[in-house]
Amino acid sequence: MANNLIIYDSEIAGAINLISTYAESLTNMINSINAALKTITDSAINDNAISAELLNTAKMLEGLKEPINMLVESIHDNCMLFLRQIDEVDQFLY
After folding, report:
1. Domain-located, residue 46
2. Which residues contact 76 (CB under 8 A, 6 or more apart)?
3. Which among 22, 16, 56, 23 has a CA at the least distance from the CA of 37?
């Protein structure tokens, strides 16, 4: 029985792309929700307390965008590091 580990670079690259696309979709959703919340507070809500809560929600959502981007960058960097390390070991072994 062979003890070979096979790494499919293309699958890792595909996963990175899928995660990046999903993160972009999340960011777009946050932007859409925030735009809707702003429209509601500007034109449909006359209660200051409700408007303040909606604006706080928008601010909280906006705060999620940077951690999402940082997570995607970290995933990308770690996957690329893993692939480089595998390539280095392959060159050493073969």
Report:
1. yes
2. 16, 20
3. 56
Instruction: Tell me the pLDDT tens digit for each residue of 27-74.
Output: 999 999 999 999 999 887 788 888 899 999 999 999 999 999 999 999
Residue ranges making up the domain that contains 76 = 27-81
Of 40, 39, 29, give the one whose Cα is nearest residue 62. Answer: 29
As a whole number of angstroms, the distance between CA 94 and CA 83 comes to: 16
**Residue 63 tokens, joined:** 């705060």
Phi, psi of 5 (to 5 degrees): -100, 125
**17 located within any domain:** no
What tokens were used for 37?
């919340």
Residue 89: both structure tokens together: 């070991």
Look at residue 68 and tell me if it is in a domain: yes
Query: Does 93 reside within a domain?
Result: no
- What are the backbone dihedrals phi and psi of residue 47, each rounded to the nearest 5 degrees, phi first? -85, 120
Q: How far is it, in rounded angstroms, from Cα 64 to Cα 16? A: 20
